[in-house]
Amino acid sequence: MTVIMRVALFVPCLSEHLYPKAALDMVKVLRHVGAEIEYVEGQTCCGQPAFNSGYRKDIIPVAERFIELFSDKDAIVAPSGSCVAMVRKFYFDLDIRPALVEARKRLAGRIYEFTEYLVDVMGRDALGGSFPHTVTYHDSCHLNRELGINVQPRTLIRGIPDIDFVEMGMPDLCCGFGGTFSYKFPELSIAMVARKCRLIEASGAEYCIGADSSCLMNIEGYLRKHGMKAKTLHIAELLAESLGL
Amino acid sequence: MDARQQILDSIRRALETPSHLPDEAAPETLSEAIAIPELGLEEKIRLFRDEMKAVSGEYIEAASAAEAAEKIAALVREAPAAEASISSGPLVDAVSSALSAGGIRLVKPETLEGDARKNAVAKILVGIVEAPCAVADTATLAIPLDGRSMQAYFLPEIVIALVSAKSLVANHFELFKRMPPEERKNLLLITGPSRTADIEKILILGAHGPRRLVACLMRD
Amino acid sequence: MELRASETKQYIKKALKDDAVRDAVDKATQTALAKRAEKVAINPFWEELRKLGHAAKRGVVERLDENLARFETECRNNGMTVHWARDAAEARSIVLGIARDNNVRTVVKSKSLTTEEIHLNKFLINEGIETLETDLGEYIVQLLDQIPSHLTAPALHLTRKDVGRIFHEKLGVEYTEVPTELLAIARAKLREKFLAADMGISGVNFGVVDSGCCVILENECNARLSVGVPKIHVAVMGIEKLVPSFDLLPVFLKLLPVSATGQKQTVYVNIVGGPQRSRSGEGPEQVHVVLLDNGRSKILADPQLRETLFCIRCGACLNTCPIYQQVGGHAYGWVYMGPIGATLIPQYLGTHEGRYAPFTSSLCGACRQICPMSIDIPHHLLKLRNRVVEAGESMAVERAGIAVWAFLAKHPLLYRLATWFPGRFQKLLKGSFPAPGYSAERALGRFDDKGFRKRFLELEKNSR
Question: Which residue from A150, A216, B115, C23 has the highest number of Cβ atoms inside 10 Å of its Cβ?
């Protein structure tokens, strides 16, 4: 018996406007493993940048809208750990309308990050395919430390038979993006991404895989500007590519 | 209003709002972490010896007071020194006459007063002391400030500490459990020779206290 | 040299240009982390100890009034004098009063962040009392007229060459950069002082509530010499430094040294429960405990942020912080630095002086992961960011931008329209948009001309 998994997409701002390919590839991979995909019209932003900047009052209506839009879905999946952490954890810091308190709790239990959904919910780890390259993996901070997701993406990477996976030094070292941190303290943020990129380069990997487009934008921006040879790839893109989707 | 009352009042006001923290497991349910392991004497000795070496301390053993005195005298002579300050207690009392007989001049801090005491002890290279109790798990010497002079424990460059095997406890939990409440209130715990790593994290032994700490374990 | 938390942006820029300091900080923090990891790996109960520590501290802090009163009674029963200080000035005058009453002319101090917090040294020196730091690192930074750059390793930002120069200039000794020789110089200078000092001042790592004693951890023996030789011992203690009992003290004796220096145990644990001179003929004849509030009861009033009072000042969060590793401790502009400092600065100094501190973090969470007290530092930083905004301390431009964004985010059609423009304009540019600061050393991502939603709908159409 095949259980049809119905997945509502939550596409964070960066994926919507700058990196749609990662989200599209996520759709392809989820379909490949048998999920049914739904796009929820009217979605905008989860509110994280404003929340992280301290503007709690301003985002309450944004969060309330988000909760109303998504809380009746069975499963909501996003290609970003930090946006999922926002909804799953930090929404609880907001004084939302009492009528939505239950819905918020329900939503928190049903929103998943992409690799978490594949591995923990769908029970898929080795998807097969082919990607004969050396790759390394960057642990995005919110994904790793707020959601505790670090095994799942590695499992999926190792599930590609011909991939050469190497760990870089300090894979869980912050890349220095930190959302608005990157423009509030640009020199510091750049010093941090420089360090991350040196570690990526030292690993000898051709590709640095990540599961959050924000970190990847930061890393890729530095690698490119400094002529470093490694490329970045969202894990959804890696899986879609290896499966020829 | 006085400061005390004002501080306590503002604490009380502050605590009117209950914590946001989720309920946690009460400490009792985590008892494994604070359990006192059942260790045999030999195990405790082995642990104490290994840990002493791990903290850059030195370890010697003696089967009798006579043997201890002989080994300690050799250490004092090697230091090189002809005199040593010596603390009080049954273990040092058991070796002191043999040490004197061996030609080592012993200075008992208790026989000196105030400034004369600290100035005298500070000039002597070696201190011979005893630890009434020691912790195997960390090679920690536990010395209650029970009226004895403590200066020989930290002013000399080289400190030789007598420890009775019988006094070894498994860990700090056992140490505080066994120790009479009045004794543990004024207590010095020593784990290895004094040290600093304040310059480029380079470890140097012998900061403001002893550079060498030798534990002499007495088996009888 | 007086630092200001409100100048942190400038300090950060300056620190990033100082390669020597960055190198020193990076090496020192990596060494400390490696040693800590070794000790954690061999302790099967580490996580349990953390939970115990957190629960014990919580028990103390959530009934702080009762615990302080009990601690005070027990201390008095042990023959100690207990003083209460509402703020730094009151604490300073209490200490000065004790010194004056006893004709104190020289003071030796063991390392204490609490006394740094109340600027005690300078105050006593201005009052004509010679006051010397005796921990090697503190001694070095005192000679330089700096504050410590780390909670447990005050001179972490300096190299042996720096120390050699400082000793040469300030002490008039011949230049050497051999660490053992530098230590020998300090030891000889300070030994005289220890033996002659009238009063010793220390901080307190843990105050044991049920027994009324102060626990002071150290490695150099300088605290022992400060509290066990002079006739007067003054212990300055933040009111949050309590632990419930001797039964649970070992939990903290394990958590602190491993987290701070990667030692299973510090060399000395001084447990002070009263004056000793009448019994042993040496050590203090008076022991004074100064209980300092200085803003702590205010911190307690926030049911979430009061967790920041659980801090045992081990410095592990500094070592693991990717920001501290880059800029060191002085960049934060206050005596408490790093991630925990970033939570304490706005709480102690207010949201104006401390308006930048909660933002000196990428919220990566490494601090919470390493904290022996499991303090949820990133979460507290988020709350403090909100406090800064609520206090009107954020920039007007940012406030306006957020208001526009929030309006758009509630209106999907307008939101789509507003976000349609960058994609259009992007087409005209070869590279990506320039972003002030951000794109100095890295390219910003390129806006997609269609966006996900449109592409997804196209995909749907084609597959049908």
Answer: A216
